[in-house]
Amino acid sequence: MQEFIFHNPTKIIFGEGTVSQLGEQAGAYGKKALLVYGMGSVKKNGVYDQAVASLTEAGVEIVEFGGVKSNPLMSYARKGVELAKAEHVDMVVAVGGGSVIDTSKSICAGAVTDTDILEFFVFTSNVETALPLLTVVTIPAAGSEMNGGMVLTRDDTLDKLGTCNYPPLYPKVSILDPTVTYTIPQSYTAFSAADSMSHLLEGYFTQTDEWSPIQDRFVEGLCKSIMEAADKAVADPKDFQGRATLMWGATMAFNDLAWMGIGPFGFPNHMLEHPLSAIYDIAHGAGLSIMMLAWMKYASEKGNARIAKFARNVLDIQADDDLAAAGEGIEKFRAWLEKVGSYTCFKDAGIPESGIDRITERTVFLANLWGAEDYNAENISEIYRMCGPFAEE
Amino acid sequence: MQEFIFHNPTKIIFGEGTVSQLGEQAGAYGKKALLVYGMGSVKKNGVYDQAVASLTEAGVEIVEFGGVKSNPLMSYARKGVELAKAEHVDMVVAVGGGSVIDTSKSICAGAVTDTDILEFFVFTSNVETALPLLTVVTIPAAGSEMNGGMVLTRDDTLDKLGTCNYPPLYPKVSILDPTVTYTIPQSYTAFSAADSMSHLLEGYFTQTDEWSPIQDRFVEGLCKSIMEAADKAVADPKDFQGRATLMWGATMAFNDLAWMGIGPFGFPNHMLEHPLSAIYDIAHGAGLSIMMLAWMKYASEKGNARIAKFARNVLDIQADDDLAAAGEGIEKFRAWLEKVGSYTCFKDAGIPESGIDRITERTVFLANLWGAEDYNAENISEIYRMCGPFAEE
Fold first, then answer.
1. In what order do the strands lie in the sheet with A4-6?
2. How many angstroms separate the first and last alpha carbons of chain B?
3. Which among A1, A155, B13, B256 is least buried, having the fewest CB atoms inside 10 angstroms?
4. Closest Cα to residue B291, out of B236, B333, B354?
């Protein structure tokens, strides 16, 4: 273990029917809220109505800002910033998944300053203060409901940029009702499970600490639980226990605990994925599902022994040799991802081999921005070429 | 999984040399601190000097309140309350283990009210507000550095009373430097490991949820890690990795995460232990070490299948039959506790069989106070009689 600071003040309210507590919680932060949501699924599944009813009952005035799309754009978030400023809202309430929550975070940060929000993503400015944020999670995947990071896509370059954890952006309250996830289709259930696992595995695979058994087992236990829960939710979309475990698993996967004390680590799978979802507009979790398989193969062949550890401790692979164990583990993981309905190759995502050059160029940009010194155009495109079969040109 | 609320705002600063950050952190909460510590070990190992130097350098005035003994008494905490009131301190800084931190929590609660602190322990008053608390942990066991509970012993009856989590009592900042634990003797290292494990296992053994894989694996992984780390620290008291893992393990064991969503559960081992340490003034962890072995036997014979689960998943027992697996697990756990130097029977703790009547009487009182309806004088004394061999009369 190495040194760390952990400070996660988000209050989690978990359980069936908890959306009704939104208004009471929001009331502690003011009288006027910007209500941010997506393309309308929350209106179909009733969560929007529950949230509005609870806020209204508590006397919290609502300013609407719907229409956030997945892989959200910075330009749209800027509109939210302008609205929040014009309406002098006291807080932002996000009702949705990671796209809605991250758009909301950028609004919270942008509404209290004249700094353009892009600066928080390219590290030319810090988020020193922000409006309070409350969230109602509808897709358990991003984990943004219990951390201080955010991801938005820059319109002009289609670079999907992620930030570090900004302390003012930890949500004050996040409400997690597993029953609101019953309507998530199988594909997105699978993508979300892959997304959660990738958050756990980035640190697990790339950590530099000599001995971190608490963190290793934390990650391994959550991965096993998320896989079991995804199986249950795929078998029966209204399986409360499966949905509940996926939901709390997604939050635990990205609330900072997984990498406390593991030393410096990277986010190579996210770096490799961001251009996929930004350019091809696929689900982030779907892209991660593909990239993890390719990156794990690449890394194990480069001598990364943690892939074999994952194979043994999460996937019950028995092989003694690390490379053999990693290989068997990757194939078992691929089979599981296929079974639950996630993507495992560029063909699934509609990405042709000819797209690799453009993706590689944007990933090189991210590698430079994030200081991922081990990555360059050559090995990045090598990893992408391991993502076949490819879509037809 | 079942519904829960999780809200743990304590900031953890972890690593070698972090005590030097105390003053800067304390400075955010005021200019005058009550510095609470124990019987002098912090003066011998240099932590006191580090804490005082850091506070002084940051311009924080210190009011001293040392002399807190282990199994701390409410009467002594009341003296701290009076001193905090008389000196109008802005905060309390605890430098020590659970006894010091819990005494400090009661001072934080008592200093801002005319209510006697006993009321917070017998649930006739709530802690609605409190002075801010910062801690520097010197014994990783109690976990009090990252929760809102406290335990003190009532002088007149020697009842060792514990509270629920009071939100105002979560420390603002807790500083964990594993190197300050290098001087903890083997016995207390072992007692502390048992203490941490008991915090994890109370919920694990008595939970009522039908399916909670995240929580089960969280507990199992931490127990395995704590056992491995204790082995390392016993083999070499200055093994940084062993000490670091014991320290973070103790905090993670009792920061509420272990039982989020597991449904109603009990604290039978703590209930059975409290009278032991209160009356015989043994280390709480030593008493828990004894009680866990006896209670696990009692519970498994009553049909509690979770003991077998622990035996299989933490202690690698293979037996198919639950009672057999539990029995083998208990004996393996006993052997490990003996090996690292903890207590496993009343003889180790100097408790004669004739003491059981008095202990039972006080435990019945606790069972009533805590609503532990499954326990009565008959089965409580039955469990104590399983704690032999006994000390000579």
1. A4-6, B11-14, B173-176, B133-137, B91-96, B32-36, B61-65
2. 48
3. A155
4. B333
Question: If interface means Cβ-Cβ distance under 8 Å, which residues of chain A face chain B?
Answer: 1-16, 18, 178, 210-214, 216-218, 220-222, 224-225, 228-229, 241, 244-245, 248-249, 252, 257, 260-261
Residues of B in contact with A210 (CB under 8 A): 241
Q: What is the pLDDT of residues B222-260, one digit of tens each?
A: 999 999 999 999 999 999 999 999 999 999 999 999 999
- Highest CATH level, class, for A11-181: alpha beta
Structural domain spans, chain A: 11-181, 186-385
Q: State which residues of chain B have pLDDT below 70.
A: none
pTM, rounded to two decimals: 0.97
Fold for B186-387, please state it. Answer: Dehydroquinate synthase-like, alpha domain (1.20.1090)
The chain A residue lying nearest B211, using CA atoms, is: A241
Chain B interface with A: residues with Cβ < 8 Å:
1-16, 18, 178, 210-214, 217-218, 220-222, 224-225, 228-229, 241, 244-245, 248-249, 252, 257, 260-261
**Residue B28: other Cβ atoms inside 10 A:** 12
Q: Does B11-181 match B186-387 in CATH topology?
A: no
Q: Which helix (H) or strand (E) holds A69?
A: none
Q: Is A326 exposed, middle or buried (0-12, 13-18, 19+ CB in 10 A)?
A: buried
- What are the pLDDT digits (tens) for A70-128? 999 999 999 999 999 999 999 999 999 999 999 999 999 999 999 999 999 999 999 99
CATH superfamily of A186-385: Dehydroquinate synthase-like - alpha domain (1.20.1090.10)
